[in-house]
Design brief:
single chain; 425 residues; 15 helices; 14% strand
């Protein structure tokens, strides 16, 4: 194995930039990532005799600052990196920090078209460019306790209005059964975005403009549904990962919960400890007024390259390999964004015997068609703004609807600070 690893040793050290290899030597690439992605790099390293990788593990919360420092000093700039957060792309493609290589004319269109619909939206700044490739997709599904649903004689909801009524029926007679937890930014954002609420959604044709209207009728309708469910006790005023909610789930009192594609493997199986055959996978619900669902996402990393690398062909080869190679992605921890590479991953998902519904992977594939195109990388931290404006007050007992005006104000202010033009109507 040629790959040399330096795990999280960037701080206080100057790493030689992987440039200047002589013609007779292997091209040397410095790459950044996390421990989960190190096997991807190792597989590429083993498959290419003409390329030698040096791997450095960088923590998510240190990635942007350390890359900015490397660019300023000109030392230790990675030739390629894994972006652990979908919001990392935009800050790395600005006039001040212009790191990411543009890929739209380098990656074959056939390859780009084979990614799941809207999955590469986080890599498209809106100016016709493609600045990264998506690693995995994380659109919302409906996860549910199949035996409990059957025991109660209830049908899996297909609309959000049915979701409310099914949850209410399950909670009858003080059963203590709940259908979600919402004291967290992403679950609440999914309710809004799923109904077409424009909350920091890019304006088509203008990459520097955002539509922000948190008090529009679609937003109010979604917030009112959440408020009714909170009042009825069918939604918990805690986060899905809080110990209190985890105990509720372990005790068999969780009927269903909206969550991303990775929720089954990483939360329901590992934290909620649902037994084999219990977890059902349902299509993300739509609103009755809609012809089809609209699903927000929660996570999904990307791969990017340095636009000034001395080895652009090798970097492009790396980015394509780690996102599209079937063997590498077969054992990936999350659902690959490249459709052909996800097929065998999905066969293992279904073949595990853990899930209680037939064709669970196909349901996730079908839902991918409804991924919200507004799930993009922004120069503002929408999650922090949402938490600041909503989550603390909601957890303390405020209604979601009452918090929409301050959510609007917070998002508008954050967008303007990030130098966006704001459209409110």
């Amino acid at each position: 194995m040629k790959l040399r690893s330096k795990m999280a040793l960037l701080a206080g050290a100057s790493l030689a930039c992987a440039t200047g290899a002589s013609a007779q030597d292997a091209a040397k690439l410095l790459v950044w990532g996390d421990p989960v992605r190190q096997p991807f790099y190792e597989a590429f390293d083993a498959a290419r005799d003409n390329i030698e990788l040096e791997f450095v593990s960088v923590a998510r919360n240190e990635m942007i600052a350390k890359l900015q420092l490397a660019l300023q000093t000109g030392e230790g700039i990675p030739d390629a990196l894994f972006l652990q957060d979908t919001n990392f792309a935009a800050p790395l493609k600005t006039r001040r920090v212009d790191y990411l290589m543009e890929l739209q004319d380098k990656v074959p269109q056939e390859t780009i078209d084979s990614f799941y619909p809207t999955s590469n939206s986080v890599c498209e700044p809106g100016d016709g460019t493609l600045i990264c490739l998506r690693n995995d997709i994380a659109h919302f599904m409906l996860w549910y306790n199949k035996p409990l649903m059957e025991e109660l004689g209830l049908d899996v909801p297909t609309t959000w209005e049915e979701y409310e009524s099914v949850a209410l029926a399950a909670a009858a007679n003080d059963s203590g059964i709940v259908s979600g937890a919402v004291a967290m930014h992403i679950p609440l954002m999914n309710f809004l975005y799923s109904n077409g609420c424009d909350l920091a959604v890019p304006v088509e044709g203008n990459p520097n403009a955002l539509k922000i209207n948190a008090t529009a009728p679609q937003c109010v309708e979604a917030a009112q549904l959440v408020d009714r469910m909170l009042a009825a006790g069918t939604l918990s005023r805690v986060a899905p990962f809080d110990p209190e909610f985890i105990e509720t789930a372990k005790s068999g009192k969780l009927l269903m919960i909206p969550g991303p594609t990775w929720f089954g493997e990483f939360i329901i199986k590992r934290r909620y400890e649902f037994a084999e055959g219990v977890t059902g996978v349902g299509m993300t619900p739509k609103w009755e007024s809609q012809d089809q669902p609209l699903a927000w996402s929660w996570g999904g990393g990307m791969w990017g390259g340095w636009k000034d690398t001395a080895h652009p062909e090798e970097v492009l080869d790396l980015l394509t390999y780690v996102t599209t190679d079937v063997d590498v992605n077969r054992t990936a921890v999350t659902m690959p964004a490249y459709q052909p590479a996800s097929v065998e991953w999905g066969a293992a998902f279904d073949g595990s015997g853990y899930y209680g519904t037939e064709g669970s992977f196909q349901t996730m594939v079908d839902a991918a068609e409804f991924g919200h195109p507004g799930y993009v990388s922004l120069r503002l931290d929408a999650r922090s703004s949402f938490n600041k404006a909503v989550v603390t007050d909601l957890a303390a007992g405020a209604s979601f609807e009452s918090l929409l005006p301050q959510l609007q104000e917070e998002f508008v202010n954050a967008a303007k600070l990030a130098r966006y033009e704001v459209v409110t109507e």
